[in-house]
Amino acid sequence: MKTVGIIAEFNPFHNGHKYLIDTLKTEGYRVVCVIGDDFTQRGDVALISKFSRAEAAIKCGADLCLLLPSPWSMSCAYNFALGGVSILKNLGCVDTIAFGSECGDIEKLLRVSDAVHSDMITPYIGEELKKGTTFAKARQTALEKIIGSDAEILSNPNDTLATEYIAAAKALDFSPEFIAVSRVGCEHDSKKTDSMFASASFIRENYKTGDVSSYMPKDSFDVLCRDYDNGLCAEIERLETAVIAHLRRTKPTDFYDIPEVSEGFENRIIEAARTATKLTELYENAKTKRYTMARIRRIVMSSFLGINLQFFGQPVPYIKVLGFNKAGEGILKDSSPTVPLINRSKDYLSLTDDAADCFAKQRAAADIYGLATQRPQAGGRELSESIIKI
Fold this sequence. Notes:
The chain has 390 residues and is α/β, with parallel strands linked by helices. The chain is 46% helix and 10% strand. It has 17 helices and eight strands.
């Protein structure tokens, strides 16, 4: 039976995610989802925990959910994709990778991915960066000089990630089939909605004050409501004093091993932390043309969580199972993992070297995440939480 992998945050799981999974199910695929950890690609906390997001995904059609640990889940598109694809490859039974796409044209995505990761583009990017633009804009402008109008797809968030998934598979010597499912409904991060679809960011911003139930499958909405009622929804503002306090005692040299820091940017962050009392104020004071807000937030949170360059550009050294249904149990039986498979807490105890170091980062991040919830949580959930079986 064909098995497809999806890499996502599901923050939270909404109707667009269900549409993607349902489309693949209609084609006869078993669906494996690699879900981002409790800290996200935008340098923020996830609204609900990875365990709750996995539960929602499985109740809404996913068969097996695996974890993308924080060193990859809270990273730039390149590293996020590399981590997710490495898990799918190392599971040993995934033959296809699918993703939502604004353009829906897999051939175009393949061409752009090859071009944007070629040596030819490097000098053009350098020229654009000298003008003070962001890396993303510099790369798109450079790509236009090589392949013309197709470069415009790099202005689409899902398409940009898709090109990174393709490149990651190539870098890992992995040759799955790729499926681009045209995105339906609202754009990524859109403030607009229609009768059925809204972006995850819209739902996060309005779940407390507006009715978002029409934009989420009932099972997913019920999980969100349950966690909210139990005081388990998280907001980054609950950590901001601790984050700023951490930054006020850091030195520039402490940033030398933090991903995405260059050109002395650590000095701007340290200076901003001396006067800021809110994270939004810190980010605004540190902002430059070259650094997007998401990149700044990731740098700050990487410093706070102790996430360094040790795992940047590396595959994930183990596979953590979050949950599965009966079909997902079959996937696990068919798998032939090439890295340790973690499906019980005691499996962590046998990890060594980089895998043990990775788990230490993951566990620490989970303990800190527990302090960002409405009702602060005791540490240790990473070892005490049971795998979801539906």
